[in-house]
Amino acid sequence: MNIGKWKNEVDVEFHKDLPDYSIGVSSALDIPFELPDQLQYELKIHSRNIHIGPVIGFLAFREKQDMNIAALNQYLSYFTSYNDVKGLIFICAVDSINYSNQTIEGYYYQGECDEKEVVWKFGTFPFPDTLYLQINVNKKDYYQMVSVLGKCMVNTHLYNKWELWEWLNTDKHLLEHLPYTELLEDIQNLEEMLDRFGTAFIKPVEAGTGQNFFRVEKTGEEYRFVDNFSDEIIFDNSEEVMKFLNVLLSNEMYIVQQVVSATRFDERSVDFFVMMQKNATMHWKCSYIAARFGEKGITPSNSNKTAFILNGRDTFRKLFQMDERDVFLKEQEIIELCIIACKNMENFGGNYAELGIHIIFDEIQNVWLINISPMNNHKDFINSDKQLYLKVVTAPLDYSKSIAGFN
Description:
By secondary structure, the protein is of the alpha+beta class. A hairpin with a 5-residue loop joins strand 18 and strand 19.
């Protein structure tokens, strides 16, 4: 018998007094975790093994002290499909994982309750059939999880910008839609990028907060660096730039990347966010396309503030004056490109349940793939459409159930 990743040899007896479609677990069985008996479980019988589940872990916190009821309730929407998924689903933290006895402390979802009842209950659970990563974790913790949990993890490889380029540019079709990228080594390959494309982005390889992003332009001997706060630094010659880059590269690795100018509408920059997900079918599908409009009159940079968001279809009509047929064809072009990108991500990075793909259009409507993120805040894009929001946030649990073997 196995419950989550826990396995043990047991004797099976048949009892006529048990209700139909039910199983009893003897109290004499030494189980080093809790198995809430009020939940609905599914059984999978394969050969001599009985698999009780699904058991799904949802890694949403770094420290268990942060798992208070208010914080947990922010994820309630993710559990609205529980009656279809069933089983033991719990939210946990990085430091609540006990590798020595293979248990995890967390709060499990008890199902819909009356207003006075608590939806979440604390407990100690087995390593799950599936562990879904909702947050980024540091490399040490990440590799420890992989070494123990392996393929049962969802969002398995937390890649950086350089790895993303290396993974995607091997596909000839995708390469046509990727801004050309190199590792920034010195002023020489920055100069080469500026000579080739006129402008260039300098971006840190690793994702993080408070980092320096720069858009670089050169006029004569003068270099203009504009950062992600729209502050600019002017260098009069290449020697000054070289000193600046030496300091920059002494702290971390950077890429230098071709700048693609996005189509503008009413003096606003416009980019698109394509949400690709796997649900119970385990195939990639597009859940929505959203368009982000920048602040009016501001020159596009690495980090424009979003003024407002519109549905992708509506934006295609406004931006390109498309009829319904052309809108449909443009959607299909984007989705097909994104499916190819998702499959490439799987080939190199492993198991992902959802990927948010950032794209832009240039002035002649060519599609450019700018970034891919495995963890996304859907409220930023579709909070106003409650039905779509619930469909999107519940898809990862449906997928997690399928790869746990309970599809």
